[in-house]
Task: structure prediction
Amino acid sequence: MKRIAICPGSFDPVTLGHLDIISRASRMFDEVIVLVLSNPSKHPLFTTEERIDLLTQVTADFENVTVDTYGGLLAEYAKIRNASAIVKGLRAMSDFEYEFQMALMNKKLNPHTETIFLTTDLNNMYLSSSIVKQVAMFGGDISEFVPSKICRVVEKRLSQRGGQE
Ligand code: PNS
Result:
C-alpha cells in the first residue's frame, strides 16, 4: 500500500521554508500531496490558482509530489485520499500551540491520519509568507526567501501592492 502524506497550508506564497519541508516529506513517503487550503483567519494576496501555479512550478522536479486544493476540512480530504500523515514544519515555540491544537482536532476528526512535525531548517527559522510579502511589497529583495524560479513573478505581483494596505 502506498504511503501518502499531505503538506497542507495557505502558501501565500510558497517560501523556501515550505519547499524544504515538501522536499523532506517526499523522501519519507511514497506520495506527497501539497494541499492549498483556506485559513479563515488569513486574507490571501494570491488567488488559489496563482498559489497552485507557483507550487506546481517549484515542485516540478519532485516525481512523487503533486499539488491540489480543497474547499473543505483537511481531515476530510485526508480521509478521502487515504493519507497516512499530515506533514507540517515547526519553526519556533510560537508555532507550537496553534499547530498542536490543529493536530489534535484533525486527529479527532480523522483518527487514521497522524500529524508529523518536521523541525524547520535553521536558515528558515524566521521565514514566513507574511514577512516575505511585506518585504516584497515595499520593494525589498526576497531572492533568499523564495525559490528562484518564482522570485521575479512574486516580486512583480507584490510590488504592485506596495503601500496599498
Ligand atoms: O499555512 P497556514 O495558514 O498556517 O495553514 C493552515 C491551514 C490552511 C492548514 C488550516 O487553516 C486548515 O487546515 N484549513 C482547512 C480547514 C480545516 O480543516 N480547518 C480545521 C483545522 S483543525
In short: The longest helix spans residues 93-109. Helices lie at 16-28, 48-58, 74-80, 93-109, 129-137, 148-159. The pocket of 4'-phosphopantetheine is lined by residues 8-10, 37, 39, 42, 73-75, 102, 105-106 (CB under 6 Å). DSSP finds six helices and five strands in the chain.
